[in-house]
Design a protein that fits this description.
Blueprint lengths: L9 E2 L4 H7 L12 H5 L1 H14 L3 E3 L7 H5 L5 H17 L4 E6 L20 H16 L5 E7 L2 H11 L6 E5 L1 E2 L2 E2 L5 H6 L7 E7 L6 H12 L3 E4 L17 H11 L2 E4 L7 H10 L4
Parallel strand pairs: 1-10, 2-3, 3-4, 4-5, 5-8, 8-9, 9-10
Antiparallel strand pairs: 6-7
Amino acid sequence: MSFPPPSGPVVLDGGLSDQLVAQGRDLGDELWTARLLVEEPEQLLAAHTAYVRAGARVVISGSYQASFEGFARRGIGRRAAARLLGDSVRLARASGARWVAASVGPYGATLADGSEYRGRYGLSAAELERFHRPRIEALLAAGPDVLALETIPDAVEAEALVRAVRGCGVPAWLSLTVAGAATRAGQPLDEAFGAAAAADEVVAVGVNCCAPADVLPAVTRATAVTGRPAVAYPNSGAWSRSARRPSSPPSLPSLAPAWLAAGARLLGGCCGVGPDTIAAMARALPAS
């Protein structure tokens, strides 16, 4: 079966960090969830499996904050780092999910200072492309079904990532983090979504880790600008590195049908969204 399927919604997983905290893991580390690739990979598999049992058809690998540079600061060489990036895909595959999305998080995530929510790193699109390309190549070598270019805060990085996946032979989705009608860096959404419009590899465009109220207008713009299906997986309305938040609100499953009607085909949750909410979302949407 191709990715994504030609019609009908596909349920994504929820916040990986939230499930790991629920499993008793401490994520107070600059590698965040990627630390477990090194020390406790079985915990990542357990978290992915919890979402599959909840009804997720797609699980996103634990590579959001994984990078050659970040691993190097732990004394891990490039060959071992490439293996760890591949392990993130293999662990997701072992969960039994129908599809595996390899997470390509933003440059700012590797800085571990929250700058993925600000963007404008002072780097050019060419510099950002050079940073992302080796990570993407290592993830592709492990055979994901799709690349999740996710939590992207500005149009420059969106452009860089679209360049980096051209000709890769694997579909990708591009997902921005937004604030109202703009990227987190303050640019018009049309500018950032437009970066994907001419790239055949990008099969869906949308938003993640944003406020639930921002999803519908952003999805509407994404489909209008690109003509592609949309992806939507917001957070619970609050963000915290510790992942210690109240459980996700019951509003996400009730909002999902409107996102579907606006063109979203890939729907799930991000920070603060756990398996119970994903299960409720799966029940709220028609089966694909």
